[in-house]
Amino acid sequence: xxxxxxxxxLTSVAACALxxxxxxxxxxxxxxxxxxxCIETKPVVRRQPIxxxxxxxxxxxxxxxxxxxxxxxxxxxxxxVRALNLQRGEVRDSAFFTDRDPAxxxxxxxxxxxxxxxxxxxxxxxxxxxxxxxxTPGFFVTxxxxxxxxxxxxxxxxxxxxxxxEVVTSKLLYAxxxxxxxxxxxxxxxxxxxxxxxxxxxxxxxxxxxxGEAQMHALVDPRVRDGTVRVAASKILEGEVLGPASFRRFRxxxxxxxxxxxxxxxxxxxxxxxxxxLVWDGAKTLGYLIDFGTSLGADAGRGGAKGPCAGWLNVxxxxxxxxxxxxxxxxxxPCDVPQPPVSPAVGFFASPVDPDAWKPYAPNLAFxxxxxxxxxxxxxxxxxxxxxxxxxxxxxxxxxxxxxxxYLVETLESRRAAIVQRYLDDDSEEPARx
Length: 434
What we know:
Helix content: 25-40%
Number of domains: 2
Shape: globular
């Protein structure tokens, strides 16, 4: 018997050695620089059409992963591929991340986020390009100083829903160390908007039509409340915008893997490549997270509040589709229970969150690589934020009903506690309280 157990042990060691020898190691493009997860060059970015990207991450990439024997084997033996830049439990500055201690931020720092006083928009605003397609219309504008912004409009019947989600989420991600543009909730008087000459925009049929004062007022006037229209104003990033990042390229960067937990916290389900930007600043390339209109209780894709399965299922969920097929359509996921929005401004944002089961609406190839070490690092950062920090971030949403702000703070606190408890249950570092 001892000899047999020894043989089994030797067999296990040999199997591990074989798996490790087959590959599955962390990789980083050397042409981008020596330091992992930092881009010291100006890369060529190829933008995938959104439809192809979604097909790729939902169908093509999962099939390809079946042939990544090294990575699969390492997970099976409990040795997943380690992140390239997680050293002694910490992550240094990278393309997407700035290593600042959340505990050292004041509530005022969180409220401001990346917004400096000079970043605040100043009327009048000249529309240089109209965004009429999709469920979230808006305008590219220049303000009185020539500074450029993107103004996004809320749904007509939910005048604070998307703009509040964009702003609050951007502040929380900034507090965790991520690079985000300046987002602010701004009240604009219709007379402060001017249409630039010769503008065109796509109509409901996808055809280009002239865009003038009449078309602008058709979008703005139904959204006017007390003489102003509310917008989510994001300052256009400085530098040369190269295009979206490929999360597949960053799959071995701890801060990108662990972004999964940050997005689970705020239920930001739109985690596709196109909601990131690589920007060349003249010396290096920086990565930004953008477009948070599908966070908290909002769903920009639906043009309103989230459905109850947002965060629990992929839009094309192969497991659920298989169950429905096998049961001849009788199967329904447990989350598929109609629930009303909390309010028009909050949408549907509930306390329960399972960080292990949380899913964006389409798979994210970096999130799938998150290890317990990556998650532990993020949970520790989340634990260093206080309730005062969360209150400051929510205050940036400028909710007109104080009850909406209170609800969001309480729900964010509850969701954060669930994530921290899952990954720091045995850690000596206790979450901050006040």
